[in-house]
Model the fold of this input.
Amino acid sequence: MNNGFRQFLHTLDGGRIGIAALALGLAEGALEECVTYTSTRKQFGRPVASFQGVHFALADMATEVEAAKQLVYHAAWLKQQGHPFKKEAAMAKLYASELCMRATTKAVQLHGGYGYTTEYPVERMMRDAKICEIGEGTSEIQRIVIARQLLGSLID
Amino acid sequence: MHDSLYFSDHHLQVREMVRDFAKTVVKPTAHQYDLESRFPWDHVKQMAELGLFGIPWPEGLGGSGMDYLSYITVIHELAKVDASHAITVSAHTTLGTSPIMDFGSAEQKRRFVPLLATGTVLGGFGLTEPGAGSDAGGTKTTAVDRGDHYVLNGSKIFITHAGVGEIFCITARTDPNAKRTHGITAFVVTKDTCDLEETSALASDTPIRQTSRNAAACCRERKRTSSGGEPPTRASSFSRTRSSRKRMSSDP
Done:
């Protein structure tokens, strides 16, 4: 009785890794769609993936997806091993959810006008991405959780 | 990331199984479900058969007896093709079932977890209220002890699975004199004992297509006091999705 607040904070710590994994999946899915699309879509007589501007976008997405993967699976591993994981879960959720918003927005851009239609899945991915920055603790709340772990009793 | 860093052969088998399901079943149809804002019950049934609704829970409670990394892998793989399917597994497992596993009495686990872990019913979590989002300490929903039952009164909002789920973990204020974050208790609330309430689905273009804008809880179930001084099980319900918004009935 009367312990519900502490209990749901615990539940949300675990939930954050789940949302982080979801956001990671969205970002990686968007990257895969972009690799396929840009290597087949032709403009100016060649696949748009042959342009350096597209290289840069894909390289950034892939790098960030890799970083998110490390954060997500490391947080999950910490939880599984019984180690403290509050800070790492918040970091994974914060980074992966903000990444999936960036990555899916870029994915729509790389698809051009088609990306804005329901003909390709990237517009749905972009809509879905936004909730990752809000649900089960907003990005702002994640930053507060991380900062509290850093500062501890120094600011109490 | 090299697979060997975190994954065993078993994890890789789970990943292949889910990738195959995601690619052959979810990906070709996700677009249509989204357009129609329809909940994929047929896929939920298939995911239940694959054991995806009780991945980290013991087989004795109907779960798949796998580890947490397996669970995270499943969410990751589903989200690559459709975030809605991924959130169904995530909200059901982490939010709907884990509070009962982590904090429930033995009787609550025996009674609720097998239904959830086998995917017989879907679960959810009722924390957020119209006036209590990031500020969850501002919870206004009350739970009043009426001797052999509790009465929950209040309004919950943005509750994933409110329209489709049957077992929810709901927070309510049990000590009106306690300061903000104190005096809140979690209740298990079930649909079948619903007094009356209503939910209205959010607009069709939301990713979590069964998140409801307003899901109010009202509870009138007998306490199921268990032995050994464990807190009693309390239950109540959410209604199915309805088109109009109604306020909760008052304390009966």
Chain B touches chain A through 56 residues (CB under 8 Å).
